[in-house]
Amino acid sequence: PPDAPRIESFVASEYRTAAGQPVTLTFTTVNATRVELIDDGGNAVQLAGEVTSGTATVAPARSTFYVLRATGPGGRDSAFVQIAVAEPVSDVFLIAVPPVIEAGGEAQLLWGARNALSATLVSSMGTPQTLTGSTGVVSIKPARGERYTLTVTGEPGTPPVTAVTDVRVLPVLSEATLAADDGVEAGKTLRFTWKTGGADAVRVSEDTFGPLTTITEASDVANGSYNYVLPATLPNGIAVANGLPLRFTVTATLGGEARSRTLDAVVGAPPAITRLTAPEAVNEGGTFTVRSEEHT
């Protein structure tokens, strides 16, 4: 098998600085075909140089962790540095990078336990994991939002120290479609379809008529549909007339997180299919396509 990529060094010119002052980060790698640098908010940081060695200049406004990731045919490696702004460098810390991911995505927990006799990591839904060394990186792929706690014990007679971080997991709503094969008219059927990832429910609502349905069956949540017969009257008893605008919302939920798409229609409009397809997230500087289709 190919040799695993390895970050041989990743250092900062300063580890304590004032807000807004430039700091140079320098790295060297072997067996890597790609390197990337992000801050603890998940934001990309521009690199200069080659895959084998390079630099980045940052000017943090607050204490910030920077994560370097090296990938290659043999796997990947990660390393990080902590830049403290107007405060001492933290001895005990637990940071999730990025703090928000999409369902199925991965985050990394950066931890430090300087001068500790033992360190234990536990999630709100998992079993304790004993950590070795004084610092490290733990990759995680939580199915939903979780809280992670690092517990560090020191010399006998000293109380344990804890650090806590949360990871939010967002559902993916990759596609939402409204089809009106017989036109948008009272008594006619409107058909909604969707595709999601990681969601535990899908809700369909309309601004005037309110909640229409909630789907919780796993297979229907992932790739499902809902038929809605447009009523003849509004909730206030007034007849549904041509020209009435309708705004439907399809929402995918995961725990307390949600992603939504809106689909518009007008009563009296001819048969139509309205589709909105777009990625939930892209890398900074990347390109992507949003497709909006209306067929009559």
How would you describe the overall organization of this protein?
The protein has one helix spanning 218-222, and strands at residues 6-12, 16-17, 23-30, 34-39, 44-45, 48-49, 53-58, 64-72, 75-85, 92-97, 100-102, 107-113, 118-123, 129-131, 135-140, 146-153, 161-170, 172-180, 189-197, 201-206, 210-215, 223-229, 245-254, 257-266, 272-277, 291-295. It is an all-beta fold and 296 residues long. It has a 5-stranded mixed beta sheet, with no helix packed on it. It is elongated and about 75 Å long.
Structural class: mainly beta
> How does the major sheet shape up?
5 strands, mixed
Which residues form runs of ≥5 with pLDDT under 50? none
Computed CA radius of gyration, to the nearest angstrom: 25 Å
**In what range is the share of β-strand residues?**
over 45%
Q: Give helix % range.
A: under 10%
Mean pLDDT: 91
Spatially, the strands of the biggest sheet line up as 2-9-8-4-5
What is the β-strand count?
26
Output the helix-strand order.
EEEEEEEEEEEEEEEEEEEEEHEEEEE
Number of helices: 1
What does the overall shape look like? Answer: elongated
Report how far the terminal alpha carbons are from each other.
Answer: 55 Å
